[in-house]
Structures are given as structure tokens and as C-alpha cells.
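The authors assume throughout that readers already know how a fold can be written as C-alpha cells. For illustration, here is how one protein appears when written out as sequence plus C-alpha cells:
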Amino acid sequence: MAPITIALDWTPNTNHTGFYVARKKGFYKDAGIEVQILSPHQDEYKTTPGSRLVDGSATFACVPSESVISYHTWPNGEKPKIVAVAALLQSNQSAIVTLKYESRIVQQMIRADGGSGDYIETTPPMLGIWSTLLSGSADATWVFLPWEGVAAQRANVALNTFKLEDYGIPYCYSPVLAAHPDTLAGQPDAVRSFLAATARGYEWAAAHPKEAAALLCAEVAADAAAPGGAPLPEGLDPAMVEQSQVAVAGAYLHTSSSSSSSSSSSGAWGVMDVSVWEKFLDWLSGAGLLTSKAQSRRQAAHSSSLDGMRSGEAGEALPRGAVAAADMATNAFLPQAG
């Protein structure tokens, strides 16, 4: 069987359920694929999912759309231009919540609401971001509402929620599934087979959220207990996962409805609208955030003003025409494109 490795962007959660369903239900096996799922906690978040695409340790990686964009803004030849091949979710499920805010994007949110945009961002250990908010060590954090939002609800923690689109930010798909351009050019049939099997997994999860939640918990526990596995810093709570799965299931599939938050369990998984990418690129350019270097994250347990976005650290501003959404994202390998 052809081996394929998926690098997750976070510890296993309901954004990733379709991968685990496809593996457990034999959808990958039916496609002649053997899949390994890498959680970033296994090396304590030392290696980013995008870096795994570059070094060849992953075939596919779950990344935010801005990571894909950043690989396209470096001077030619310095980094491969990774490509998004599917959207895990059809609508933005993230928000800033209070109980302080993600680099330059958050700075623009503050300005849109009449503030100066000045703030201090603290980078806690990656596995402790949520706890820093609950403990009062940070004033706000950027979360996925169907995950941390559900956790807060279950803990009776009231949140003020600030969605990016409400502050003039047309945020793109997040997370997306990305691949190295060499993989797309050299193994197109394997990519199509993998995405078709993965789509089956997400479609099943959308139609059977409670069963999918139980499957996710069991598969993650089995991976942690397997030889070479690494226990999660905090085990999955089946009741919380079920509530999260029900909350996110409606965002998995693209439907003809104008509302991407529909709870429908029918539709196509992974589809991306190029205009969503174009609008986000337009906004980045208009806000002066489309630059030749990507934001670099400070080391854990350190704080900095604007998180490294001070003068000279973001590279040169790029003209809007320097990047094209069609080069960054494609639906060509999805089942409905065949």
C-alpha cells in the first residue's frame, strides 16, 4: 500500500475527524493507501506542519491559509510554493475571545474598532494557550469556537466573542490541507485517491456526528497507546468531543445554500472558492500585510510588541499582483473535479 503521512496543525480534534474516520472505516485501505497521522504534540510543536512538507516528512499538512500565502511571498527558489488542495471547513469557525490578540491581523481588528493597534502579544507554550486565558495570564486568545468555545461552555466560562469578519477582515479558509508542488506534479493519482477517501470520511462524520466523535476518541487513544505513540497532554473528554462534533459537522461540506453554516449533512467536502482567497489577499495587500517575509513566532514563554512585526522584520511590501489565488489553491484533485 502507498504510504501517506498527514501532519496535523494541532492535537487531534474535531477539525480532523474525517481523517480518522477514513482510516478506521477502511476508506484509505480501499484506495490502496496506508495513512499515518502526525500530531504536533509528538515533538512538542518543534516542527510546523508546513516545514514537514518541505523536509518530506509529511505528504499533506493541515495549515491556515496564511501559511500557504507565506510560502508564495518568499523570493523564488527560497521556499517551495505549497498548494492548498482542500478546505477542512467551509466557513471560518475561529474567533478572538476575551476573559489579547494574533499579530498583525489582530492589530487591524483593533484599528477597525477605533484603537491604535498597539498591544503586547505573549507566546505561551503551544499546549498551554487555552489555560493562559482561563488562568488570567492573557486577556484574550484566538480559538476555534467548536472546540475551545465548547470547552468554555461546558466549564461555564462566559466568553466575549469577536469574529474577524465582523471587524472587516475577510478571513480565508482555515485550516486547509496543503501539499508540496512536487507531490502534485509527481503523484497526481495518489493525491486524488487520498482526497476521495478523505472526503468519504468527512461526509460520514457530517452525517453521523455522535458516532464520529466516539470513533475519534477511540482512534486517538489507540494511536497514543501504540508503540512509538505519545500520550496527549490532556486526554479527550468523550462528552466534550461529541458536543464539539455536533457543533462543527455543519461546516464540513460545501452546499449550494448561501449559508455556509448550514447543518446539512449533504454536499461536497474540500471545495474552495477562489474568490474567498482573492478577497483575503486583497485585504492583506490593502492593510500593508502582504510582505516578502512571513510572521515569525517568538519562542514559548516570551512576549514582544506586535510579535516581530516591528519595522524591518516583515520584509518588503509586495504589490498585489505578485501573488495569485489560483496558484495557491486548487480543487482539481477533489472527487467532484474528476
